[in-house]
Amino acid sequence: MAMPVEQEVHHLGEQVARLLAENTHLKAQLAEVLALVGTLRGTIEKQQSHIAKLVKMTYGRSSERVEGPTLFDGLEAEPTPVTEAIPAPAEELVPKRKGHGRKPNSAHLPRKREEIDLAEAEKACPCCSAIRVKIGETVCERLDYTPSSIFVRAIARPTYACRTCELAARDPQFAKAALPMEPVPKSGVGAGLLAQVIVSKYVDHLPLYRQEAIFGRQGWPVSRTRLCDLTARCGTLLEPLYRAMIARLTRSFAIHADESPVQLLKPDRSAYAWLYLGDAANPYTVFNFTPGRGEEHPAKFLAGYQGFVHADGYTGYNVIHGSGARHLGCWAHVRRKFVEAQESSPAQASRALAYIRTLYAVEREIADKMLTGDNVVHLRRTRAGPILKAFGEWLEEEHRTALPKSPFGQAVSYARNQWPTLSRYLEDARFTIDNNVAERAVRPLAVGRRNWLFVGGDGGLPTASVLMSLCASAKRHGLNPWAYFTDLLNQLADKPADVNHLLPDVWANRHGTINQPTRC
Question: Distance between CA atoms of 517 and 506, rounded to whole angstroms?
């Protein structure tokens, strides 16, 4: 029996409605699946980038130098005016070869003369048996080594008395010379040995347990607990000089800042070493070890500072920039972000790196021509300024299409967020394009951290701040650290009211250096 038309239409309508509902549901499921695929794809790209970064850190080269073209490549050099020159006599140009081979022994090293002479029988002439006379000598130098040694300073102070007063039954008026003050009172340890402990740990990165073994072999059975106590008391003695360095540092026109983690033993957590580099007029390298990485630490250290601060994009420095100091960005950190993005976005990252290489090419030109002052500013504005403008416009275009969580998207966002601080170096010749000088200065801390592993506790942070700062500043000025610390400890034992004559740069002018000062 045939179904009535009305019922058939109603049945077909129900089927259509059911199909439409299923279609809507399937579309929703498809959208959900596509969204999940996009999320998973982003996660996979992020994990692949992270794996590639770890592989590079483990097996790749540590240098961030990126070879490649700049935007100046292919451009003709600026024409130079042709001037009529007086012809000079022709000279044969001999190319100077780069020195190689063994270097001569240093002239300042002490010499111990040893003479090897002929036996008396060998001095007879084999021809006529007459005794040969000395007409000269040949000196051959060989480097040798005498192990360091510990000795006891027996300080004798004669005592004097008045015999006349003694015979007259009066006070004999005893007298003797005053005993020199000890850097660490009642320790029985001299300044030279204390300086050796400090330099061994903070310059040569020898932990105290190794020094304990070394001193034991040399005849001083000292415990590392006592070495730690002596080091802490030296830090307290040297603190006035550390405060003087901070006072001078905060007068700098521009300061370089960086931070690096260190491990605390008690309690077991991370502390941070904040590094601050003064300018040429205030040439000090100052560390401030703190129990955390919060913004309150740089805010307290640089309270009242109104100059410029070279730093990366870490938000802990924002409080400094908000209180008067102006931020100078770091192009090396921007370059690092795009280097990390090369695996996932090679074409775009390479384009960004070409812009950055061009900016550094301008800085190399400045260095090669040894430009200063207004000449630096002029060259930066005329050569680097247009590149910065083009790079900024390119970043805005890429920001619209780059995935925010991809390595390339994060690099673009970092550069855009830091852009006002990245272009500020054009304004003054005293500014630098990056903060690499601070990263180089903090590198010895990483070497020491791998050796002494941790700082004993919160109480050891001030000691580390003082001694690391003085060691780094002595290295910056090319000083002999042992001689410098020995003199400091001897003079500060008398508690002088003024310590400015002991600052590293002043001390270097009076006593000289043994190495070229570190470039900053």
Answer: 13
